[in-house]
């Protein structure tokens, strides 16, 4: 039950003595392994600004090494904040000890004590705070009931499955009734079926406890299903903040467009044309007029004709015939049950098309089969040469 405000947060890992860089004549920064390297050290998180409302579920998502876990650890107090300010409920927390921040954290590795029972593991943080025995018993049993692990309270962690251990780790965090619950890739050690089950459990848990959640994952499916808002990161920078639907429907740049959505968005080299005040895209010899909403967005920004990267999601491409279609060649056909994923080559690019099996009847797609692709002007995403969405 708390608000969080992260203002211009930055994390710099200093160089060791023999690695200090000499100051450059023109620019004192350089790029190395996708992270900025300065005279002070390696910058892992850059100018991170985020306001989190009370009881909001925020998900930080991005590829490995983008700075999301580092950001979470700075909120927890496990990493020192190099620059910027962290506020919890309006109080500056930069120099406050982790134990005094009223925050609980669930780690990727569970971090349970192997010699303690489930009950003892969950009770341990309360014992450290010298909570009365009756209160400890009430909170542990209440948390066990919420997480459906009451029957395991007398067992030791080695007698539990991965999903059960993760529930115990979550239980140990929530018995403290923290203001903020931090979760660092808690489901990454579980198999696919268990991950799906635990995602549902976390959604149920969120409805039962009054806590602000900050969740880190590299799995965009988790981000889309769990978060009220998603913070997409790359190389220490925030790329976009928005609801799952917003970032899916209106990606701010090429990175977000390619990262959010499974299978990922298809990209084509194309041209944006402005003729008689109307916008259309030209790709592979076909021309598609854009939908009214996109016409208005581009006209409001006075966007001119230019070379662009055109993005179209696999589910928005359909098979068709006729002159105004892209010709492609099937490379791989994947049967997914209710749909078929066709991997094809079109205009020198790898393209994925999702086709419902109901539309196929007896049609088969062997490698080398020619197909014709079409899409309408309402599903086009337009990115300039710098990768920015032209509608933003």
Secondary-structure topology with pairs:
Layout: E1 4-14, E2 30-32, E3 35-37, E4 41-52, E5 57-61, H1 68-76, E6 83-88, E7 91-92, E8 103-106, H2 118-128, H3 133-147, H4 162-174, E9 180-184, H5 192-208, E10 212-217, H6 220-226, E11 229-234, E12 237-242, H7 244-249, H8 254-259, E13 266-275, E14 278-283, E15 286-289, H9 292-300, E16 306-312, E17 318-319, E18 326-335, E19 339-346, E20 349-356, E21 370-374, E22 381-383
Parallel strand pairs: 5-10, 5-11, 8-9, 9-10
Antiparallel strand pairs: 1-4, 1-6, 2-3, 3-4, 6-7, 11-12, 13-14, 13-16, 14-15, 16-22, 17-21, 18-19, 18-21, 19-20
Helix pairs in contact: 2-3, 2-4, 3-4
Brief overview:
With 392 residues, the chain is of the alpha+beta class. The chain has helices at residues 68-76, 118-128, 133-147, 162-174, 192-208, 220-226, 244-249, 254-259, 292-300, and strands at 4-14, 30-32, 35-37, 41-52, 57-61, 83-88, 91-92, 103-106, 180-184, 212-217, 229-234, 237-242, 266-275, 278-283, 286-289, 306-312, 318-319, 326-335, 339-346, 349-356, 370-374, 381-383.
> From the coordinates shown, what is the CATH architecture of the largest domain?
3-Layer(aba) Sandwich
Domain module tally: 2
Question: Any low-confidence stretches, pLDDT <50, length ≥5?
Answer: 18-33
The CATH homologous superfamily of the largest domain is called P-loop containing nucleotide triphosphate hydrolases
Principal-axes shape call: globular
Major β-sheet profile: 6 strands, antiparallel
Strand order of the largest sheet: 2-3-4-1-6-7
Total strand segments: 22
What's the gyration radius in Å?
25 Å
Q: What proportion strand?
A: 25-35%
- Please give the count of helices: 9
CATH topology of the largest domain: Rossmann fold
* Helix vs. strand class: alpha+beta
CATH class of the largest domain: Alpha Beta
Distance between the termini: 34 Å
What's the pLDDT, averaged over the residues?
A: 89
| Percent helix range | 10-25%
């Amino acid at each position: 039950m708390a608000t969080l405000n992260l203002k211009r947060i930055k994390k710099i890992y200093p160089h060791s003595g023999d690695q200090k860089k000499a100051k450059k004549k023109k620019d004192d920064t350089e790029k190395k392994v996708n992270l900025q390297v300065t005279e002070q050290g390696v910058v892992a998180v850059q100018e991170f600004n985020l306001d989190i409302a009370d009881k909001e579920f925020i998900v930080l998502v991005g590829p490995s090494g983008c700075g999301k876990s580092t950001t979470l650890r700075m909120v927890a107090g496990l990493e020192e904040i190099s620059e910027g300010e962290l506020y919890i409920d309006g109080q500056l927390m930069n120099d406050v000890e982790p134990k005094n921040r009223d925050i609980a954290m669930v780690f990727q590795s569970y971090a349970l004590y192997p010699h303690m029972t489930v009950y003892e593991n969950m009770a341990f943080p309360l014992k450290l705070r010298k909570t009365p025995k009756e209160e400890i018993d009430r909170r542990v049993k209440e948390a066990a009931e919420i997480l459906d692990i009451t029957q395991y309270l007398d067992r030791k962690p080695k007698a539990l499955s991965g999903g059960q251990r993760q529930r115990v780790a979550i239980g140990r965090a929530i018995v403290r009734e923290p203001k903020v619950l931090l979760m660092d890739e808690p489901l990454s050690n579980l198999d696919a079926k268990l991950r799906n089950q635990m995602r549902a459990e976390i959604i149920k848990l969120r409805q039962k406890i009054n806590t602000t959640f900050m969740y880190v994952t590299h799995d965009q499916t988790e981000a889309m299903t769990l978060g009220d808002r998603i913070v997409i990161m790359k190389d220490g920078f925030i790329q976009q903040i928005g609801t799952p639907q917003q970032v899916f429907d209106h990606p701010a740049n090429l990175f977000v467009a390619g990262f959010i959505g499974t299978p990922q968005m298809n990209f084509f080299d194309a041209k944006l044309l402005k003729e008689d005040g109307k916008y259309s895209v030209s790709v592979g010899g076909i021309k598609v007029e854009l939908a009214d909403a996109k016409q208005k967005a581009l006209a409001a920004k006075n966007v001119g004709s230019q070379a662009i990267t055109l993005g179209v999601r696999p589910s928005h491409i359909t098979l068709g015939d006729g002159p105004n279609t892209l010709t492609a060649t099937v490379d791989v056909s994947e049967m997914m049950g209710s749909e078929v994923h066709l991997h094809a080559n079109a205009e020198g690019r790898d393209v994925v098309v999702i086709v419902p099996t109901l539309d196929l009847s007896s049609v088969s797609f062997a490698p080398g089969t020619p197909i014709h692709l079409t899409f309408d002007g309402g599903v086009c995403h337009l990115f300039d040469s710098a990768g920015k969405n032209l509608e933003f």
